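Q: What would this chain look like folded?
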Amino acid sequence: MNVSAMRRTVWTSFLTGILCLLTSGVGSAADWINEGMAEPGKWTTGFRVGPSFITQNSALDTAGPALNFQGLYGMNRWFRIGGMLEWSNHGFDRGSGSVDTVTLLPVLLEYRPGHFGPVIPYLSTGIGVNINSNNVSDSFAWRTAGGIDYAMNNWFPNLPKGLMLNTEVAWNRNHTNIGDLSAMTMLFGVRYTFQ
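A: My prediction, written as structure tokens:
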């Protein structure tokens, strides 16, 4: 399978999953409710995994794994602020070895405008540093993302109220001495808001 066919397959799978998530459990409550969903004064942590795709031609393979941790605090009904740590790995096209990138974002802002029934969309952006391995220069990191939270107690009523399934698509800027290693990442996992 070539790279463009693989990307189409991944995007189709991702969009199908989002569509299933949006339609499951929403039913007649699919109307947009414009109320902030950031839960002021509460802490949220998250753990997600997924594939990472280099967006430009470079010396690295297109796809690699990513692992993401985050912590956020609800400032008011609309915004959360916090930080994020993400690791990704991409092998070299030719030869052996790989480049590990640790993205540290000490400033991350998330906007949560409302919800469609139990589905809560959000947008986020943050700045920080990309720490690259294998003699690849470190670089300024700017990350922008959009995602969806879905309360797991809609499917399993005995689970804690603050436990959410999460999916997110993000772009991370990473300009280095060997080229543009900026990447799109698709993350899947859970987030928990302490009640």
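The first strand starts at residue 32 and ends at 33.
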